[in-house]
Amino acid sequence: MTAHRRTLSAAALSCTAVVAAPLLLTLSAAAPAQAHGAPTKPVSRAYACSPDGGSTAGTAACRAALTANGGAPFTFWDNLRVADVNGRDRAVIPDGKLCSGGLPDYRGLDIARADWPTTTLSPGARLTMTYRSTIPHTGTFKMFLTKPGYDPAEPLKWSDLPAKPFAEVKDPSMTGDAYRINMTLPSDRTGRHVLYTIWQNSSTPDTYYSCSDVVFPKAKSDGGNSGGAGSSDASASTAAQTKPAQSPTPTDAAEEPSRTAETEEAAESADSAAPQAGSTVAGAPVAATTDGSGPRYAVAGGAAAVLLAVVAALVLRLRRR
Predict the structure, then answer these.
(1) Among candidates 146, 123, 158, 149, which has minimal Cα distance to 193?
(2) Whether 69 contacts 45, CB under 8 Å
(3) Residue 154 contacts by C-beta under 8 Å, 6 or more apart in sequence?
(4) Do 245 and 58 touch, CB atoms closer than 8 A?
(5) Alpha-helix runs per DSSP H in the chain
(6) N or C: which end of the chain has fewer CB within 10 A?
(7) Which residues are CB-contacts of 312 (< 8 A; sequence separation ≥ 6)?
(8) Contact between residue 126 and residue 236 where contact means Cβ atoms under 8 Å apart
(9) Interior CA angle at 97 toward 96 and 99, to 5°?
(10) Do the beta carbons of residue 150 and residue 160 sit within 8 Å?
(11) pLDDT tens digits for 136-194?
(12) Distance (Å, rounded) from C-alpha 219 to C-alpha 228?
């Protein structure tokens, strides 16, 4: 849980304890533990526009979403869930309300705009989605990508999505505070699209919905590798740098803040590949931190031994005179 949410929770609990402690204890004991989550890479609208979203929270699209939300912030970006759907997503969630799951508290996420904060992806590349969650739960993740020709200026409808997901993962393991889900992106997308994620829990009655706005650059015409499904992860990881925070409009959407999933994944791989203390690189040992028995003390000990030998020799010579 982030710092501002811990502060908010602590303040609320403190006030409640004073005025209604018995009621709070009763509700706390009766309430079941719930899993919460949303994608942070590619960044979802709820996370991007939340207080945790950083610079993206101040973009024009996020400000408009807050206004449409009645001014209520998306503090609980991980709580966009609907109970008892049981796989009937297209029957329960109305057209035009896919990003909010039909929940009034998240209605600002359904605004049709072409300037939502985006993540740049490569067509046909491998993607590792980071799906933040508070506690592990069993369930199935289904990922959909809007069809070619999708118009971001129109409300997102079920007909904008293929009938079947391009990737589906059941019961992935949780590493740290997130699920990391590997998938291969479709190779026939260019321009703006929505990566729509459905997480249907099997250990709770809840289903979670998320919209992540993504951009696929047009394929290069120089005959080079455009990051297709057959390319390596290294070549597919080439992407633009993160852009500075601005307040974009639909006409200057190219200048909006953009996150790059491939760049973040490459950085994580580089960190995990860095040599650790005590390991070797090309046969040479990497020095570790010492506690008195390491290299520096070994050198000092050798010098002292040489000095004692010289002194002993001088004493022996003086005795012989």
Answers:
(1) 146
(2) no
(3) 112
(4) yes
(5) 3-30, 45-48, 60-68, 89-92, 233-236, 261-273, 295-320
(6) C
(7) none
(8) yes
(9) 115
(10) yes
(11) 789 999 999 999 999 999 999 999 999 999 999 999 999 999 999 999 999 999 999 99
(12) 10
Runs of H (alpha helix) within 31-92? 45-48, 60-68, 89-92
The whole-angstrom separation of Cα 261 and Cα 55 is: 17
Classify residue 105 by burial, with Cβ atoms within 10 Å: 0-12, 13-18, 19+.
Answer: middle
Instruction: Report DSSP state, residue 250.
Output: G
For residue 230, give the amino acid letter. G
Residue with the two structure tokens 């992106």? 185
Residue 265's SS3 state is helix
Q: Are strands 126-133 and 178-184 parallel, antiparallel or unpaired?
A: antiparallel
Give the amino acid at 231: S
With CA atoms as reference, report the closest residue to 256 among 264, 245, 267. Answer: 245
Instruction: Count CA within 13 A, CB hemisphere, residue 255.
Output: 8
CA pair distance 99, 85, nearest whole angstrom: 15
Convert the pLDDT of each residue in 63-111 to its tens digit. Answer: 999 999 999 999 999 999 999 999 999 999 999 999 999 999 999 999 9
CB distance 120 to 217 below 8 Å: yes
